[in-house]
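Quick one - inputs below.
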Amino acid sequence: MIEQQSIPAMGSDQKLAQTKNTFFNMLCSHKYSYHFDWLGRPIIQFPQDIVAMQELIWEVKPDLIIETGIAHGGSLIFSASLLALLDMCEAIEANKEFNPKRSARKVLGIDIDIREHNRVAIEKHPMASRIQMIEGSSISEQTITQVKKIAQGYSRVLVCLDSNHTHEHVLSELNAYANLTSIGSYCVVFDTVVEDMPKEMFPDRPWGPGDNPKTAVWEFLKSHSEFVIDKDIEHKLQLTVAPDGYLKRIS
Ligand SMILES: C[S@@+](CC[C@H](N)C(=O)[O-])C[C@H]1O[C@@H](n2cnc3c(N)ncnc32)[C@H](O)[C@@H]1O
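Output:
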């Protein structure tokens, strides 16, 4: 059982926050988020965020997960595997036959550049039957129209934004996709932590402190009271790339 009462205390522990920030930046200087696989595919995430996503997927039980930013496909395979487990658990509970290849649930991944070797590996993965990919910029009219059309067929939608991390791009993604998030579900914006890191850590990136996913979230929330930041998640994770990025849709 989760020790719920100890989580706010962790969130307000200033000494822990300082130590955590130092430790987090040190980990990033060693490219920590590039060290992990999920079911054989590289997933560019911190393990803590992977656990948080597992908890959210179990809680929301989405039938569609929309993800911008595919890279090597690890996060798509992760989401698809959790959807497969949801199908399996529901079949067991209903005392029904579980056909691992059939599912009404889907992960929809979008990337501006799906490298051929990544596409081949994703398409031949055992989780592939639950995955659909779109190649194109996540903020192009064509992609947005396609995603919205696909989303019409689903009722519990979870959204993850993890592509280009500039303020302008993420704000455009939020404006395009956040409203596809079902009430009670989440729109997760990754790499909001860039705002809290030294600008020297992004020498060759167009994003940095002042121009990143967190500044986009803050801007978006000014006119979108249907979303709130779920602070409990970052308080319990401590090591997360998505502080202020776990947005819960409440209305
Ligand atoms: C951080 S990686 C995604 C990591 C992946 N979600 C994971 O957890 O393994 C970012 C990806 O965003 C893609 N990207 C960059 N700009 C984009 C855009 N305008 N539209 C869609 N994808 C974009 C890049 O090609 C890259 O593959």
